[in-house]
């Protein structure tokens, strides 16, 4: 068995290929996450220019739920590919000191932005509008927020709901999610969450 594994490794096969790397800040780094100057208005405009929506993900060093999100959810091709195709993702460190410019123009650090916007759980995923509003904070502009860790279908369906602009419709996310799960079961496409 060891010879087979060594042979695969010698041939360049990596069983964790595509797995997120650990950054110097202790956060998992996806190679498809966007590195920006963290000016939220500029990031919304840039995302729209790419035909995407801006998402901010707050994480912290040692967060077991963040690790699970990277190792299970974002490593799942169905989840990863949908998010990559439709969203520009920018990672924030819940306790980081990188400079952030809020939509209202206030200059903050990542950690003061988390406090101002009221985010206390990691991961927290913040979905921003298609257009950058002025004179409001990210907390007030967000079209949806997903605090904490969830299973694959809740996680993916939240991204789908935002992509489909469910927040503008009468169908609440929980109703949408239940309907999608029921449709998947009826079609025999639901695997274990």
Characterization of this structure:
This is Thioredoxin-related protein. Keywords: Signal. Residues 47-131 form the Thioredoxin-like fold domain. Residues 1-19 form the signal peptide. It comes from Mesorhizobium tianshanense. This protein is α+β, with helices and mostly antiparallel strands. It has a domain at 18-151: Glutaredoxin (3-Layer(aba) Sandwich), CATH 3.40.30. 40% of the residues lie in helices and 17% in strands. The chain is built from 8 helices and 8 strands; from the N terminus they run H-E-E-H-E-H-H-E-E-E-H-E-H-E-H-H. The protein has helices at 2-10, 40-49, 64-73, 77-86, 110-117, 138-141, 152-163, 173-186, and strands at 21-22, 28-29, 53-59, 87-93, 99-101, 107-109, 124-127, 144-147. It has a 4-stranded mixed β-sheet with strand order 4-3-7-8, sandwiched between helices. Helix 7 crosses helix 8. The two termini are 31 Å apart. Mean pLDDT is 90; it is low at 1-17.
